[in-house]
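Practice problem 4.
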Protein backbone atom coordinates (compact mmCIF):
# COMPACT_ATOMS: atom_id res chain seq x y z
CA UNK A 1 0.00 0.00 0.00
CA UNK A 2 1.34 3.41 -0.96
CA UNK A 3 1.54 6.20 1.60
CA UNK A 4 1.04 9.60 -0.06
CA UNK A 5 1.85 12.58 2.15
CA UNK A 6 0.32 16.05 2.11
CA UNK A 7 2.75 17.61 -0.33
CA UNK A 8 2.60 14.74 -2.82
CA UNK A 9 -1.20 14.51 -2.60
CA UNK A 10 -1.45 18.21 -3.51
CA UNK A 11 1.08 17.87 -6.33
CA UNK A 12 -0.98 15.10 -7.91
CA UNK A 13 -4.18 17.18 -7.88
CA UNK A 14 -3.75 20.28 -10.08
CA UNK A 15 -7.02 22.19 -10.41
CA UNK A 16 -7.71 21.58 -14.10
CA UNK A 17 -7.11 17.82 -13.82
CA UNK A 18 -9.25 17.52 -10.69
CA UNK A 19 -12.12 19.54 -12.13
CA UNK A 20 -12.25 17.19 -15.12
CA UNK A 21 -12.17 14.15 -12.83
CA UNK A 22 -15.01 15.49 -10.69
CA UNK A 23 -17.14 16.16 -13.73
CA UNK A 24 -16.58 12.62 -14.99
CA UNK A 25 -17.43 11.14 -11.60
CA UNK A 26 -20.66 13.15 -11.39
CA UNK A 27 -21.56 11.89 -14.87
CA UNK A 28 -20.78 8.24 -14.03
CA UNK A 29 -22.05 8.31 -10.46
CA UNK A 30 -21.05 6.09 -7.54
CA UNK A 31 -22.46 4.63 -4.35
CA UNK A 32 -22.44 7.16 -1.50
CA UNK A 33 -23.95 5.90 1.78
CA UNK A 34 -24.81 8.35 4.52
CA UNK A 35 -21.76 9.26 6.55
CA UNK A 36 -21.45 7.70 10.00
CA UNK A 37 -20.71 9.71 13.13
CA UNK A 38 -19.36 8.21 16.35
CA UNK A 39 -18.75 9.88 19.69
CA UNK A 40 -15.34 9.05 21.14
CA UNK A 41 -15.29 9.49 24.90
CA UNK A 42 -12.13 10.79 26.48
CA UNK A 43 -10.57 9.33 29.60
CA UNK A 44 -11.30 12.55 31.51
CA UNK A 45 -14.77 13.02 30.07
CA UNK A 46 -13.95 16.67 29.41
CA UNK A 47 -12.91 16.62 25.76
CA UNK A 48 -14.87 14.02 23.83
CA UNK A 49 -14.10 13.61 20.17
CA UNK A 50 -16.10 12.73 17.06
CA UNK A 51 -15.17 10.25 14.37
CA UNK A 52 -16.76 10.62 10.93
CA UNK A 53 -16.63 7.86 8.30
CA UNK A 54 -17.42 8.83 4.70
CA UNK A 55 -17.34 5.91 2.22
CA UNK A 56 -17.96 5.81 -1.53
CA UNK A 57 -17.30 3.28 -4.28
CA UNK A 58 -17.79 2.34 -7.90
CA UNK A 59 -18.65 -1.31 -8.54
CA UNK A 60 -15.63 -3.29 -9.70
CA UNK A 61 -13.35 -0.26 -9.64
CA UNK A 62 -12.33 1.70 -6.56
CA UNK A 63 -13.59 1.91 -2.97
CA UNK A 64 -12.60 4.69 -0.63
CA UNK A 65 -13.32 5.93 2.87
CA UNK A 66 -12.41 9.22 4.48
CA UNK A 67 -11.94 9.27 8.22
CA UNK A 68 -12.29 12.58 10.02
CA UNK A 69 -11.47 12.91 13.72
CA UNK A 70 -12.73 16.09 15.36
CA UNK A 71 -11.39 17.03 18.80
CA UNK A 72 -12.39 20.63 19.64
CA UNK A 73 -10.27 20.74 22.79
CA UNK A 74 -7.06 20.06 20.87
CA UNK A 75 -6.35 23.78 20.62
CA UNK A 76 -5.49 23.80 24.31
CA UNK A 77 -2.97 21.04 23.56
CA UNK A 78 -1.42 22.96 20.70
CA UNK A 79 -2.81 20.47 18.17
CA UNK A 80 -5.20 20.85 15.19
CA UNK A 81 -8.82 20.20 16.06
CA UNK A 82 -9.36 18.08 12.96
CA UNK A 83 -7.39 15.27 11.36
CA UNK A 84 -8.37 13.47 8.17
CA UNK A 85 -7.07 10.52 6.19
CA UNK A 86 -8.25 8.85 3.01
CA UNK A 87 -7.83 5.13 2.32
CA UNK A 88 -8.29 3.83 -1.22
CA UNK A 89 -9.07 0.16 -1.94
CA UNK A 90 -9.63 -2.09 -4.92
CA UNK A 91 -13.43 -2.44 -4.93
CA UNK A 92 -13.27 -5.93 -6.45
CA UNK A 93 -10.87 -7.50 -3.96
CA UNK A 94 -10.89 -5.11 -1.00
CA UNK A 95 -7.11 -4.85 -1.16
CA UNK A 96 -5.83 -1.52 0.21
CA UNK A 97 -4.05 0.52 -2.45
CA UNK A 98 -3.10 3.80 -0.83
CA UNK A 99 -3.43 6.13 2.15
CA UNK A 100 -3.57 9.82 1.24
CA UNK A 101 -3.74 13.08 3.17
CA UNK A 102 -7.45 13.59 3.83
CA UNK A 103 -7.22 17.32 4.57
CA UNK A 104 -5.65 17.95 1.16
CA UNK A 105 -8.21 15.73 -0.57
CA UNK A 106 -11.05 17.67 1.08
CA UNK A 107 -9.77 21.19 0.45
CA UNK A 108 -8.73 20.63 -3.16
CA UNK A 109 -11.91 18.79 -4.18
CA UNK A 110 -14.03 21.50 -2.51
CA UNK A 111 -12.37 24.25 -4.54
CA UNK A 112 -12.52 22.17 -7.71
CA UNK A 113 -16.24 21.45 -7.26
CA UNK A 114 -16.86 25.16 -6.78
CA UNK A 115 -15.11 25.92 -10.07
CA UNK A 116 -16.90 23.06 -11.81
CA UNK A 117 -20.25 24.54 -10.82
CA UNK A 118 -19.08 27.99 -11.92
CA UNK A 119 -18.32 26.61 -15.39
CA UNK A 120 -22.06 26.10 -15.77
CA UNK A 121 -23.39 28.95 -13.64
CA UNK A 122 -21.13 31.99 -14.01
CA UNK A 123 -20.98 34.19 -17.10
CA UNK A 124 -18.46 33.02 -19.68
CA UNK A 125 -16.74 36.42 -19.53
CA UNK A 126 -16.53 36.55 -15.71
CA UNK A 127 -13.21 38.24 -14.93
CA UNK A 128 -13.51 39.65 -11.40
CA UNK A 129 -13.61 37.31 -8.40
CA UNK A 130 -14.46 38.34 -4.85
CA UNK A 131 -13.22 35.75 -2.36
CA UNK A 132 -14.45 35.65 1.23
CA UNK A 133 -12.17 33.50 3.36
CA UNK A 134 -8.42 33.07 2.98
CA UNK A 135 -8.03 29.77 4.78
CA UNK A 136 -7.16 26.32 3.46
CA UNK A 137 -10.06 26.09 0.99
CA UNK A 138 -10.32 29.79 0.12
CA UNK A 139 -6.65 29.98 -0.82
CA UNK A 140 -7.28 27.38 -3.53
CA UNK A 141 -10.30 29.07 -5.10
CA UNK A 142 -8.42 31.54 -7.38
CA UNK A 143 -6.34 28.74 -8.97
CA UNK A 144 -9.45 26.65 -9.52
CA UNK A 145 -11.45 29.50 -11.06
CA UNK A 146 -8.70 30.50 -13.47
CA UNK A 147 -9.04 26.99 -14.90
CA UNK A 148 -12.63 27.67 -15.99
CA UNK A 149 -12.98 31.46 -16.37
CA UNK A 150 -10.79 34.37 -17.58
CA UNK A 151 -10.23 35.74 -14.06
CA UNK A 152 -8.12 38.90 -14.19
CA UNK A 153 -8.75 40.42 -10.76
CA UNK A 154 -9.18 38.86 -7.32
CA UNK A 155 -10.44 40.75 -4.27
CA UNK A 156 -9.90 39.02 -0.93
CA UNK A 157 -11.83 39.61 2.30
CA UNK A 158 -11.26 37.86 5.59
CA UNK A 159 -12.21 38.62 9.18
CA UNK A 160 -8.46 38.33 9.79
CA UNK A 161 -6.98 41.11 7.67
CA UNK A 162 -3.46 39.74 8.08
CA UNK A 163 -4.54 36.42 6.62
CA UNK A 164 -6.17 38.19 3.67
CA UNK A 165 -3.00 40.22 3.08
CA UNK A 166 -0.85 37.10 3.16
CA UNK A 167 -3.00 35.37 0.54
CA UNK A 168 -3.01 38.47 -1.66
CA UNK A 169 0.78 38.56 -1.50
CA UNK A 170 0.96 34.91 -2.56
CA UNK A 171 -1.50 35.46 -5.41
CA UNK A 172 0.44 38.46 -6.69
CA UNK A 173 3.66 36.43 -6.59
CA UNK A 174 1.86 33.79 -8.67
CA UNK A 175 1.12 36.40 -11.32
CA UNK A 176 -2.47 37.28 -10.42
CA UNK A 177 -3.78 40.78 -9.79
CA UNK A 178 -5.07 40.61 -6.23
CA UNK A 179 -6.05 43.15 -3.57
CA UNK A 180 -7.41 43.13 -0.03
CA UNK A 181 -10.91 44.52 0.43
CA UNK A 182 -12.62 45.57 3.64
CA UNK A 183 -15.83 46.96 2.11
CA UNK A 184 -17.94 43.95 1.14
CA UNK A 185 -20.85 45.92 -0.29
CA UNK A 186 -18.57 47.85 -2.62
CA UNK A 187 -16.64 44.72 -3.61
CA UNK A 188 -19.80 42.72 -4.37
CA UNK A 189 -20.92 45.53 -6.69
CA UNK A 190 -17.73 45.03 -8.73
CA UNK A 191 -17.60 41.23 -8.75
CA UNK A 192 -18.72 38.82 -11.45
CA UNK A 193 -18.29 35.90 -9.04
CA UNK A 194 -18.58 36.00 -5.25
CA UNK A 195 -17.13 32.89 -3.61
CA UNK A 196 -17.61 32.39 0.15
CA UNK A 197 -15.36 29.89 1.94
CA UNK A 198 -15.84 30.91 5.58
CA UNK A 199 -17.15 29.41 8.80
CA UNK A 200 -19.49 32.34 9.42
CA UNK A 201 -22.51 31.95 11.68
CA UNK A 202 -24.22 35.08 10.35
CA UNK A 203 -24.83 36.36 6.80
CA UNK A 204 -21.94 38.12 5.09
CA UNK A 205 -23.52 38.67 1.67
CA UNK A 206 -26.80 40.55 1.28
CA UNK A 207 -29.07 39.97 -1.66
CA UNK A 208 -29.61 43.67 -2.25
CA UNK A 209 -25.91 43.98 -3.08
CA UNK A 210 -25.97 41.45 -5.93
CA UNK A 211 -26.00 43.00 -9.37
CA UNK A 212 -27.58 41.26 -12.41
CA UNK A 213 -25.33 38.55 -13.82
CA UNK A 214 -23.52 37.75 -10.57
CA UNK A 215 -22.72 34.18 -9.57
CA UNK A 216 -22.79 33.58 -5.79
CA UNK A 217 -20.83 30.54 -4.61
CA UNK A 218 -21.43 29.35 -1.03
CA UNK A 219 -19.10 26.53 0.02
CA UNK A 220 -18.10 27.38 3.58
CA UNK A 221 -21.14 26.54 5.70
CA UNK A 222 -22.00 22.89 6.30
CA UNK A 223 -24.29 22.93 9.37
CA UNK A 224 -27.79 24.35 10.05
CA UNK A 225 -26.31 27.15 12.18
CA UNK A 226 -23.83 28.44 9.60
CA UNK A 227 -24.74 31.30 7.25
CA UNK A 228 -22.87 33.15 4.52
CA UNK A 229 -25.91 34.66 2.76
CA UNK A 230 -29.06 36.45 3.91
CA UNK A 231 -32.60 35.53 2.89
CA UNK A 232 -32.73 38.21 0.19
CA UNK A 233 -30.10 36.29 -1.78
CA UNK A 234 -32.83 33.76 -2.64
CA UNK A 235 -35.40 36.18 -4.04
CA UNK A 236 -35.43 36.13 -7.84
CA UNK A 237 -32.27 33.98 -7.86
CA UNK A 238 -31.61 30.70 -9.70
CA UNK A 239 -30.49 28.30 -6.95
CA UNK A 240 -28.37 25.19 -7.53
CA UNK A 241 -26.94 22.65 -5.05
CA UNK A 242 -24.22 20.00 -5.06
CA UNK A 243 -26.42 17.21 -3.64
CA UNK A 244 -29.78 16.89 -1.91
CA UNK A 245 -27.87 16.71 1.39
CA UNK A 246 -27.48 20.49 1.17
CA UNK A 247 -31.23 20.87 1.72
CA UNK A 248 -30.96 18.95 4.99
CA UNK A 249 -27.74 20.43 6.37
CA UNK A 250 -27.11 23.96 5.15
CA UNK A 251 -28.29 26.93 7.17
CA UNK A 252 -27.98 29.00 4.01
CA UNK A 253 -30.93 27.01 2.63
CA UNK A 254 -32.79 25.99 5.78
CA UNK A 255 -33.28 29.55 7.04
CA UNK A 256 -34.74 30.98 3.78
CA UNK A 257 -37.02 27.92 3.61
CA UNK A 258 -38.11 28.48 7.23
CA UNK A 259 -38.78 32.16 6.45
CA UNK A 260 -40.93 31.22 3.47
CA UNK A 261 -38.83 33.08 0.89
CA UNK A 262 -37.58 29.88 -0.74
CA UNK A 263 -38.96 26.37 -1.25
CA UNK A 264 -37.09 23.09 -1.69
CA UNK A 265 -38.86 22.53 -4.99
CA UNK A 266 -37.41 25.77 -6.34
CA UNK A 267 -33.91 24.29 -6.63
CA UNK A 268 -33.05 24.38 -10.33
CA UNK A 269 -30.66 21.42 -10.40
CA UNK A 270 -28.00 19.41 -8.62
CA UNK A 271 -24.39 19.42 -9.77
CA UNK A 272 -24.70 15.95 -11.28
CA UNK A 273 -27.60 17.18 -13.44
CA UNK A 274 -25.45 20.03 -14.72
CA UNK A 275 -22.58 17.66 -15.52
CA UNK A 276 -24.94 15.24 -17.28
CA UNK A 277 -26.36 18.13 -19.34
CA UNK A 278 -29.83 17.51 -17.88
CA UNK A 279 -30.02 21.24 -17.06
CA UNK A 280 -28.31 24.01 -19.05
CA UNK A 281 -27.22 26.00 -16.00
CA UNK A 282 -27.12 29.75 -16.56
CA UNK A 283 -29.68 30.81 -19.16
CA UNK A 284 -29.11 34.56 -19.43
CA UNK A 285 -26.31 37.06 -18.85
CA UNK A 286 -28.39 39.08 -16.38
CA UNK A 287 -29.43 36.02 -14.34
CA UNK A 288 -28.24 35.86 -10.74
CA UNK A 289 -27.14 32.32 -9.91
CA UNK A 290 -26.39 30.76 -6.53
CA UNK A 291 -24.58 27.50 -5.79
CA UNK A 292 -24.76 25.96 -2.32
CA UNK A 293 -22.49 23.02 -1.51
CA UNK A 294 -21.87 20.92 1.61
CA UNK A 295 -19.55 18.39 -0.02
CA UNK A 296 -19.93 14.71 -0.87
CA UNK A 297 -17.86 11.55 -0.61
CA UNK A 298 -18.21 11.21 -4.39
CA UNK A 299 -15.78 14.12 -4.73
CA UNK A 300 -13.35 12.56 -2.26
CA UNK A 301 -13.31 9.32 -4.25
CA UNK A 302 -12.77 11.18 -7.52
CA UNK A 303 -9.86 13.09 -6.01
CA UNK A 304 -8.23 10.00 -4.50
CA UNK A 305 -8.51 8.07 -7.77
CA UNK A 306 -7.01 11.03 -9.64
CA UNK A 307 -4.10 11.19 -7.22
CA UNK A 308 -3.26 7.54 -7.95
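Answer key:
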Amino acid sequence: MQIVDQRETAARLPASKLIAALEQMFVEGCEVPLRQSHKIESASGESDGTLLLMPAWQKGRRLGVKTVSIYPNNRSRGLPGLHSTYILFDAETGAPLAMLDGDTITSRRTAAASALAARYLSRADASTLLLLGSGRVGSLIPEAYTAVRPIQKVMVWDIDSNSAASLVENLNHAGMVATVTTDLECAVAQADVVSCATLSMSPLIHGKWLRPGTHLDLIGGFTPTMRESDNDCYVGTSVFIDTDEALAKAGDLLEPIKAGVFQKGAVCARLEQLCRKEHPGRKANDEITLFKAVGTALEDLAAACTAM
